[in-house]
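Margin note: ligand = FE2/S2 (inorganic) cluster.
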Amino acid sequence: MSERITLHLRVNGEDRYAVVPVHHTLLEVLREELALTGTKHGCELGECGTCAVLVDGRPVLSCLALAAEMDGKAVETVEGLQIGNDLHPLQAAFADLGAAQCGYCTPGILMTAKALLADNPEPSVPEIQEALAGNLCRCTGYHKIIQAVEWGAAKMRGVNEDPPDGVFYGADPDNPGAVRTGPTPVDLRLQERNPEDAGRLPEEVRPI
Ligand code: FES
Ligand code: FES
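Resulting structure:
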């Protein structure tokens, strides 16, 4: 039988204790001992980022972090993002913009984005891309994720709080049954701030 230790973590603001095998990772402890299954188990190799949580405010790949080395530290997981009955602005932006599809990558991306915005409340698109470079998504193509982080940041700064018309899955709010042919307000805003990105936008969202 493997050696066990008593671990103390402050998880999402609450003191949590667990007796765990000394070789277990933080990911194993969160999911298997503390039943916090919002943090996802992906590659277990440090490649996919789906297991990312915040430790003392910094993103950490929990599959590579030995739980014993986290003793006494503050851990934030996706379960702690919601504020009362309200979604965190990043969660709301992801939902509003359809930035989560299967959702498997989403907890890790949300936590990584939260750390980014704590350091940089108004990141550029390249800065968002750099911060999320270690978070893989098989579904979305990343475009909506980048938009959602930018929109969540705007919500957190207290500007542009209303969801922009027409960004919901590309639908035109004045003609919901029609396929949208022009850029969404978020696309225009991204292009305005990052004109070099205009050429990388899909044809259907380029300015007309
Ligand atoms: S499960 Fe941790 S990086 Fe993939
Ligand atoms: S939404 Fe499916 S992996 Fe990102």
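The domain at 89-203 is CATH 1.10.150.120 (DNA polymerase; domain 1).
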